[in-house]
Amino acid sequence: MSGAGDSTEDTGRTEAIPEAPPAGASPPPGPNHTPPSGPPSRSSSGPSAGARERGRGPVVAALMLGMALAALDGTIVSTAVPQIVGDLGGFAVFSWLFSGYLLAVTVTLPVYGKLSDTFGRKPVLIAGIVVFLIGSLLCATAWSMASLIAFRVVQGLGGGALQGTVQTIAADLYPLKERPRIQAKLSTVWATSSVAGPALGGLLAGYADWRWIFLVNLPVGVVALWLIVRYLREPGRTSPSRTTAQGTRPGRTTPASPGARTASALRHRVDWAGALAVFATGALLLTALVQGGVAWPWLSAPSFAFLGGSAVLAAVTVVIERRAAEPIIPGWVWRRRTIAAVNLALGALGLLMVAPTVFLPTYAQSVLGLGPIAAGFVLSAMTLSWPVSAALSNRVYNRVGFRQTAVIGIFLAMLILLAFPLLPFPGQAWQPALIMLLLGGALGLFQLPLIIGVQATVGWSERGTATASILFCRQVGQSVGAAVFGAVANGALASRLDDPPSPGLPRDLDSVSTALENPAALTAEALEYLRRAVDAAVDRVYLGAAVAAALALLVLLVLAPKRFPVIAEKDTD
């Protein structure tokens, strides 16, 4: 690794079975890495680039299918909610179909990240797919809303392994210079799912049965499982270093002989107490954030109980993790400038993403008068430009570096978010769609270089933990954003509706949206007033999102190093 106090180490690249063993080793030129002196060499017996790509093909297909399971889950379920509620009842608690799944995914991400570093990606990913499929099958057999929510939590326990481990294996498979290609493919899966998911969910719920939205996961998951079992091969692993030596940081890996690797693998101890503490802390905190202001007021006994309990458990978690031999969340995740800065920056990304994903559909339907499908297409403009921008981001960071590329992306995103409140009222659908198209391009430049940059600064035995930490922070940021911006939107509406021109007008965002779905019951004056109130509330949310982007920019400029300390990879292709 370039940079003082860091050593070059074996990155333990994951391979596909058809690939030949490495015949030579020469580090690929990273954007912020100076290769060692001497000409690079490769034996003529090494596999060609085409052969390597064909060998990785089945594993990449499995990763894309696994990502599709997680990506389709939210969008395909949302369109079937009316049918589910009509069959099972439980309208008052149906939001937990999404909240329960989100909680399970978020709190398990760091646990799966550490387990994948300890025991390998393959067993963790296989276990995650199996648990997700079991949860899907149970969801299809649900007999009540309570049972369906419980089974969605089971799905989320598998979904946490899918999200984190797929991203980590993608980094294992490809050298630094090629990672934007696989990441762009995974981003395309999310983009496609955001468009296809609602349509597929609507078709299955309308013309078959809502239970099929869960059963459709089974064939996809089985194919992904077979491809992973059949084609994914992982190298021998090294045990975490216990000592701090010149040029080596705590927690780094050191090369070991095959016999030593086998012996070290037997000495691994899973930090189950830490895993349980992390899970409990995250569950209480996210429950407080998701349900606060919805199921109970923010300034109420349940909010204080959940927030206070999460604070106490967080302190307990820190004590447990400091004493653990192999902690679930190692201290180096926050001690290293690069990873800590990226964690905070992507937490801010999760915060700002609430504006387009949660509030834009309401804006499109309530202010622009679009239907649900058309409103979805306005939002999908962002998901179309995001993977394209991400795929091309390496052309930027290879020239100016990871941090500078991310700075450019988030600065542009901040300007674009600030432009949203300037849209005319009521405006045309293409105007917010253009804003979302530009925002997706900017965020593609921001997120992917940071993820790839962090993955390039750690070795194989730390990559799962590092990847999970940044995904965890992004998920927590999204939960915080939903709570904060929900309060912002409701506050803006309340200020507009304190003295309404017509009696009987609703006072919160959900009620306003419901009222606007039945415009015939409102006078023309009341309808116009409500639409302007929603427009003002969403404008406030986008201004808040711009502030979140500014915070991410500040974090990168102040905390992130100008040049990420990239590890010199050994080319295992």
Q: Can you characterise this structure?
A:
The protein is mainly alpha-helical and 573 residues long. It has three domains: 186 residues, Growth Hormone, Chain: A (Up-down Bundle); 55 residues, no CATH class; 242 residues, MFS general substrate transporter like domains (Growth Hormone, Chain: A), CATH 1.20.1250. It contains 19 helices and two strands. The chain has a two-stranded antiparallel sheet. The longest helix is centred in the last third of the chain and has 38 residues. The chain is globular, with a radius of gyration of 24 Å.
Give me some keywords for this one:
3 domains; mainly alpha; globular; Growth Hormone, Chain: A; two-stranded antiparallel ribbon; 19 helices; 573 residues; single chain; disordered N terminus; 1% strand; 70% helix
